[in-house]
Amino acid sequence: MSRGPRTLFDKVWDTHIVTTRQDGQALLAIDRHLLHEGSFHAFAMLDQAGRRVRRPDLTFAVADHYVPTRAQSAAVPDPEIAGMVSLLADNAARHGVRHFGLGDAAQGIVHVIAPEQGLTLPGLTVVCGDSHTSTHGAFGALGFGIGATEVAHVLATQALWQRRPRSMLVHIGGTLGPYVSAKDVILAIIARIGAGGAIGHVLEYSGSAIRSLSMEGRMTICNMSIEAGARAGMIMPDETTFAWIEGRPRAPKGERLARAIAAWRALPTDAGARFDREVELDAVAIAPSVTWGTSPETAVPVTASVPDPANEADPQRATQMRAMLDYMGLVPGTPLEAIGIDRVFIGSCTNSRIEDLRSAAAVLRGRRAVVAGLVIPGSTPVRRQAEREGLDQIFRAAGLEFGEAGCSMCVGINGDLVSPGERCASTTNRNFRGRQGPNARTHLMSPAMAAAAAVTGRLTDVRRLGKG
Amino acid sequence: MQTFTTLRAVAAPLDRANVDTDQILPARFLKKPRSAGYGGFLFHDERLRRADFPLDQPAFRGAAILVADRNFGCGSSREGAVYGLLDGGIRCVIAASFGDIFATNAAKNGLLTITLPEAEVGRLRDRLRAAPGAMLIVDLPAQTITDPDGRIIRFEIDAFRKRCLIEGLDDIDLTLECIDAMAAFEERAAREQPWRLPAPEPRED
Fold it and tell me: Which chain B residues touch A130 with a CB distance below 8 Å?
């Protein structure tokens, strides 16, 4: 255990070590285990070994990946997809696990609803069989994704063997410009360090540009830590965090909350604490960004042009760029703003919270989309809030579809797909080949940028379009 | 799980960086039960797109080793990507780096991941392209790869990961041996930091 000045990560890690093995691996106690439909493999492993869920009180199941998001009351046409939703309900019921299923007033995307319900708190360990579990680091929790075998391990033991990761500080000083959002910040970070740049590391984001972000923005940042290869991403808890948590259904209350906040104030990284690596970015230099390729590391300012592999010195990298341009159907040198799109998707665990919907609606107010588009709130509470604020009316008046909570077109396994060859302006986290559907072409961007693209039918610098 | 000791097999080069788990196993196949076999879904859409996909070339038929580039297995935590590789006959992936979650999933299922410097994996791929169908010998206990020219390349691997692969350990059993320590830890945490437990669910009116 480290002594002397410690990082936020050190403090959370150290307080969760149950025991350390001779080879240096630590048995880490898990405070929250989140499940979605993909957990069926892990439940099958548990059943096969005749094991039970050790701490159902710390385990929460959410239907999100496979749920219909266009009309949840309608029957799911594909029996295999419907079966995934009911299988989760069955597994949760058999093991006494709280299940947020279809029709539950709190249902939504797992990484949206756990914070919303007050289940995610500073200083906790949070795991889920989903790589975007890094989202929960926005609260100063240590959240990371695991595979099915590790899910089964946590179900059976409420702990995980882990080797201590390395640490990296990403400091962003200065102030973000108009229309530059948390999404642009994290895209700039990934472009800077690369899609594998943070492998084996836990990131901590710091600096004035991070401090000034809302919890929604911080969640967007931490959510995409995995797209830089990081094990997790964390932001120190502060007054913004505590205010957001207070009053959430499952958060501590009264005297217990006061004691919690006192403890949480001790979590931030100590002065003089050392990181294995440090990276610095200037907020002023970050522009509204879009990706041109099939990795999030291909993010560039929207004012740029499609890069030319001929200018790449490394022949291996030039070949890989050509493969990406071929898949994306793009010609080197084309200004990004000249690229036409076929549809927009606003949603996902990255950008489906109320602030995201507000920023998209601010651009769309009084305007019409010239392409098809889907707006999917991250949770039923977000949807209700959007309706109270009239945002649903703005989306519909603009000609976009406003649906119900779930992962939807980010991963497409509920059947909401981008058609082959179609180009989608998307607020999601992955522009991987086939991610939104076979041969679909994805450009990642912020909600405001996606809204601007909907209005013009092209990738568009939202700063030029303005609020209208 | 399958154990891993030594392997002598055809190795196929895969030149792309950042091969994500969506490519390895497209999401729409993830709802299949494990018993269905995932081999038919391995690189499903990429193989439809590219007639020259390495695993479909006659020379690389029966390949059990993939030599990739940097950041192999990045992205989604889906263990189905590992099932696809194993069911598709792949027992070992050599790359310049791996997505952390993928590498853990691989080790838990008997798929060996070997990390070598970027220049070294590049050389290996060049060698395999020059002599399609050439074999590599992977010796996990000795931590060596023997290339088609008989050159020996040493690799590093976490000692516990190595032991799990060689012995096929179920680590839940190992953890359950620590369950008393776990219970004591939880009891102390609940006493000293009661806020760590979820508050009771508010009753609906």
Answer: 76-77
